Amino acid sequence: VFIAQSRASGSHRDVEDEELTRIFVMIPKTYTEEDLREKFKMYGDIEYCSIIKNKTTGESKGLGYVRYLKPSQAARAIEECDRSYRAILAEPRNKSSESFEHDYYSNNMRPELRGNTLPFCKSRMQPEFCGFEKAEARIQEPVSKRLSVVSRLPFIQEQLFALFDLVPGLEYCDVQRDPHTNSGYAVIQYSTAASAIYAKYKLHGFEYPPGNRLTVLFLEDGNDSSE
């Protein structure tokens, strides 16, 4: 079994706990934790829900956390929940929650952020995820279910398929060769945009083989990007 993971991620369990299973959502201030659980339980097994409250008054700030047992469940919730919740992956709990709330509000209140566009981050957010989102912001790359993978070394079909098949939902992996160069190029497609987003987040910049960094980008898949 070959386990692929970015060097910057730390241990697998830490990444799963802090970065991939907890989502941050905007909710009506009247919501209770039970209301929040009821709205998001359809996407997977919830470990806990919590509502952020004003420390002085005890009133809800209209923000909450939902933590799932599996990263795939959190990804499904982000992709399928109503856009009004503006769901995103949450900051690890050892980060400043107040700075995260500030960044979340400042990013999500901008009218141009619609659909499945991921909110652009500030410097205080996760370094690995922040770099990915800043790159997305610069080129305004649309999210899709299809990815292109580029390498300065040629790919072996079976090995590349095994690498991207670690993310659930892989539909196909097509390795293409340029007879005039020794570089590698492949097209990857997943069954959902959530799987493609997760694969790009984890494998863009991943060294495979060691010393050779992969470049992973979204490709137009013919679907309406607003969806």
TrEMBL record:
Superkingdom assignment: Eukaryota
UniProt keyword terms in alphabetical order: Repeat, RNA-binding
Pfam families, alphabetized: RRM_1 (PF00076)
Entry keyword annotation includes Nucleotidyltransferase: no
CDD domains hit by this protein: RRM2_RBM45, RRM3_RBM45
Name this polypeptide is given: RBM45 protein
Record-level Gene Ontology MF annotations: RNA binding
Record InterPro entries: Nucleotide-bd_a/b_plait_sf (IPR012677), RBD_domain_sf (IPR035979), RBM45_RRM2 (IPR034206), RBM45_RRM3 (IPR034207), RRM_dom (IPR000504)
Residues in RRM domain copies: 21-95
